[in-house]
Each structure stands twice: as structure tokens, then as C-alpha cells.
Write a structure and sequence with these properties.
- It contains 8 helices and 16 strands.
- The longest helix has 18 residues.
- It is globular.
- It starts with a helix and ends in a 25-residue tail after the last helix.
């Protein structure tokens, strides 16, 4: 640690009003608080200067200590001079608890599917013993999403289904997706016998999640079919159609909300979007750029606020940067968040200050009042155009 940074840290007040100590760790540009209720604060970049309204500075690739697990949440803020972006490493619930209420215009989420992959991090969602526990853990995350979502905001949830096998542990290898080979090493819950549904049954997880969300007060506005045009075939499935689609549910927390349907183009609730084989990072299940682009454009104005609590490969933040939005991405796997941070650096972002990001999130988006999707600008049927 440089002498200047060490002195700066010494000057930081780390006591709560009640007098309780809060421990602080600094690793390069990352500061980690061991208290989930406290806001994230970041050290400034090591070398920076101001050029008009753009902040110019040097950077080194960020490495977050492997195995960062709750209750710690590490935070890094970045900016390209316009978009203010944040990357948080930690479990989704603890990270979201740090964020302000009623803020984000659009949330885009693709959580880990039930027993589909192993992301090799303690505390990951998707390896629960029962479907009920899996759904419950997702609902815990979505409760926090509901709190931080703007009253007129929308929430896109992409989630896939799983089959119940009940035939014991599979054998062999899956060369197309190494992240699936974990099922040859451990017994998945879906491979155990004794469930109360027949073997070979599709479990129906997306709809179980959707119905649970409705019970929590979410309004389910649409079931969008994502037609994955170039999805892999399933050579072992000889007695059913191969899976080519996934669900994208559109939720709102209010009956009346803001939404720009014109951005859908000619495709309404069936989106023909191929899977992207090229990778931004080493994540094995990246979002397609076009899918995220539609979600962001329909749900936010220029300068709007975007959130992805399962950031993975960082597609949501990458697209937010392209579309001049501000955003925050969260992931439990520190390898993924390190790669996302470095990706954003390569795209021209420099390390910023978390307080600047929070200040941006506290203001109305730049183009909000004139955005065609703002519900105040909707033209009621029968009303002449102005």
C-alpha cells in the first residue's frame, strides 16, 4: 500500500454512531466492509487528473481475493466520463441491502438454474436439496430487488427449467460445456430417486418462481419466449423435442409503470436471439447482447439506472455502457467480478468513487421527463397526437 493511500485510510472514520467498530480492508482499488448495512466506499484511483468533466487516470488490472463470501461485500466504482458503474462482489441479498430504495429503472436477471452448473463458489444458488429451497432463496433476492426497483421500474427475469432424472449419478463427459461435468462428480438432487413426480419429468421451475413472486405482490406482465436460434441439440433426448427456448418474465411492482414498447421492433413476446458463442469473460453462460439491449431500452431512458444482481460475464454492464446508462452488477464469484472490472477498464473506464455513483443514483435520470416510455408521456387511446 502506498504511503498516500495508507494515510488516507487512517483518516477514514470507521465508527458507527453507536460507537461500534467496523473493520476495513483495502486491496488496491477495492475496499471491503464487514457490515452489510453500511454503504460501500472506495479508494480513489492511484493517479488521476481532471480534464473538463472527464476523469483521466491510470489503472492496473484488479484482482479481488478469491473466495469472497458473505457477509463481506467488496465494491468497485468505475466511469467512462458519463456512465457511472459499480461492481459488487458478494451474495446478492447482502449486496442489494447496501443499495438505495426505489432507484433502478430496469433490473435484468438470469440467476443460476437449478442444478445446471457449478460456479465453484461457496454459497452459490442452484445447488439446494429441494426445489422449494431454491425458489425460496431466489425470492429472498427478489424481495430486495423489489425494494430497490423504482416504483415505475420493470424487472426482466430469464430463467430456465430442469428435468427430474431420479436415475442416479450420470457418467461420461460433456465436452461442449465443461461447467456441466460437475454432475459426474457429485450426486445432484435431481438425480436422486424418491421425488413425488415421475422420472423424466420437466419440473416447471420458471412458473413455480413466477407464481411465488405473484404471491409476494409482483405483477407478472408478460411471458416472453426467448427462441435461442442456435441452441445445442440434445442427442440423448430421443423421445421429446429438444429444448430451444427459455422464459423471460416481465414483472412490475406497480400497476402503472414506465415502458417503451416501441423498442421491441417487430418482435413482441417471442424474441429470436441466438446464443453468443464468443466470450467477454470465462463465464460459461453469458447473456446475449441483443437480449440485454432490448431489456434496457424498453425499461430506461438515457442516463437511466440498470441493475443485475447476478452479473456473471458482465453483459448487462457492458451494454449499459454502450447505451449510456448507469448501473450496478453483483456476483458472488470473485473471479467473475474481477474479469468484469478488467473488461470495463479495457473499454475505457477508470476507477471512480462510490460516493459519485451514489450521488448519480440519487438524481433523476437526464432524459427521464422527455423519454417516450415515461408513463406521464403515454397517450391515452382516442387522444389526438400533440
Amino acid at each position: 500500500m502506498s504511503e498516500r493511500l495508507f494515510e488516507a485510510v487512517q483518516r477514514i472514520e470507521v465508527r458507527r454512531s453507536a460507537g461500534m467498530d467496523r473493520s476495513l480492508e483495502v486491496n488496491a482499488n477495492v475496499q471491503t466492509f464487514h457490515e452489510p448495512s453500511e454503504p460501500c466506499v472506495l479508494s480513489k484511483e492511484k493517479s488521476s487528473e481532471t480534464n473538463g468533466s472527464h476523469k483521466i487516470g491510470s489503472f492496473e488490472p484488479v484482482q479481488i481475493d478469491p473466495g469472497t463470501v458473505n457477509p463481506q461485500v467488496s465494491c468497485v466504482a468505475l466511469s467512462d466520463g458519463f456512465s457511472q458503474l459499480g461492481v459488487m462482489t458478494g451474495d446478492a441479498v447482502s449486496a442489494l441491502q447496501k443499495l438505495p430504495s426505489d432507484t433502478f429503472n430496469v433490473v435484468v436477471i438470469s440467476p443460476p438454474y437449478y442444478w445446471a452448473r457449478d460456479y465453484e463458489v461457496e454459497g452459490q444458488i442452484g445447488h439446494e436439496d429441494t426445489v422449494e429451497e431454491y425458489v425460496s432463496r431466489l425470492i429472498d433476492v427478489f424481495d430486495e430487488v423489489r425494494r430497490v426497483l423504482h416504483p415505475e421500474g420493470v424487472f426482466y427475469l430469464n430463467i430456465g427449467d430442469t428435468y427430474y432424472s431420479g436415475n442416479g449419478q450420470p457418467h461420461g463427459q460433456d465436452p461442449r460445456s465443461p461447467s456441466r461435468n460437475f454432475m459426474r462428480k457429485i450426486m445432484r438432487a435431481v438425480d436422486r430417486s424418491g421425488w413425488d413426480i415421475p422420472k423424466k419429468s420437466l419440473i416447471g421451475i420458471p412458473w413455480q418462481v413466477a407464481f411465488s413472486m405473484q404471491q409476494k405482490g409482483w405483477t407478472l406482465r408478460s411471458d416472453i419466449i426467448w427462441n435461442r436460434c442456435n441452441a445445442f441439440s440434445e442427442p440423448t433426448a430421443r423421445d421429446r423435442p429438444h429444448r430451444q427456448h427459455e422464459h423471460i418474465f416481465l414483472f412490475s411492482k406497480s400497476r402503472f409503470y414506465s415502458y417503451d414498447r416501441s423498442q421491441l421492433g417487430e418482435e413482441e413476446n417471442v424474441w429470436n436471439i441466438p446464443i453468443e458463442r464468443s466470450k467477454r469473460t470465462e463465464h460459461n453462460a453469458p447473456f446475449p447482447t441483443e437480449l440485454v439491449r432490448r431489456c434496457i431500452l424498453t425499461g430506461s431512458s438515457r442516463g437511466g439506472f440498470v441493475l443485475d444482481p447476478f452479473a456473471g460475464s458482465g453483459t448487462t454492464l457492458d451494454v449499459a455502457l454502450d447505451l449510456e446508462r448507469h448501473g450496478i452488477g453483483v456476483d458472488l464469484n470473485s473471479n467473475y467480478t474481477s474479469e468484469v472490472i478488467n473488461l470495463l477498464h479495457k473499454r475505457g473506464c477508470v476507477t471512480s468513487d462510490w460516493n459519485t455513483l451514489e450521488e448519480t443514483l440519487s438524481q433523476e435520470p437526464e432524459a427521464w421527463s422527455t423519454w417516450s416510455g415515461n408513463k406521464n408521456n403515454f397517450r391515452k387511446p382516442g387522444t389526438p397526437r400533440s
